[in-house]
Design brief:
The chain is mainly β and about 130 residues long. Helix content is about 0%, strand content about 50%.
Length: about 130
């Protein structure tokens, strides 16, 4: 059974940092593609970042490029999202998903786009 469990969210002030974790099981982590998406209040789900673990290539949405870093620890089957210089607009529920780049990175992510989702972790940035 595939499982993804996020943690690390919380309340932080503008300019602060958080490091989200996603512990996974049930699939071959080292050869997988994994992504982070988020949903802000009242907004569509947004793709943020993807890492192709088997080739160590990563991709970012323009809105987070230079501030967020996606990474993995194969020994722990864990995906991370280091978030720096957080802004109020980053307030959202963050999800890790088992899958790669969306066909169209600019359109809203749908639940059906990925087979497996974590439960989400809330990030709140106060100004």
């Amino acid at each position: 059974e595939v499982q993804l469990v996020e943690s690390g969210g919380g309340l932080v002030q503008t300019g602060g940092s958080l490091n989200l974790s996603c512990v996974t099981s049930g699939f071959t982590f080292s050869t997988s593609a994994l992504s982070w998406v988020r949903q802000a209040p009242g907004k569509d789900m947004q793709w943020l970042s993807t890492i192709y673990n088997f080739q160590a290539s990563s991709y970012y949405a323009d809105s987070i490029k230079g501030r967020f870093t996606i990474s993995t620890d194969n020994a722990k089957n864990t995906l991370y999202l280091q978030m720096n210089n957080l802004e109020a607009e980053d307030t959202a529920v963050y999800y890790c998903v088992n899958g790669g780049l969306p066909y169209d990175r600019s359109r809203a992510v749908k639940r059906a786009d990925y087979d497996y989702w974590g439960q989400g972790t809330q990030v709140t940035v106060s100004s």
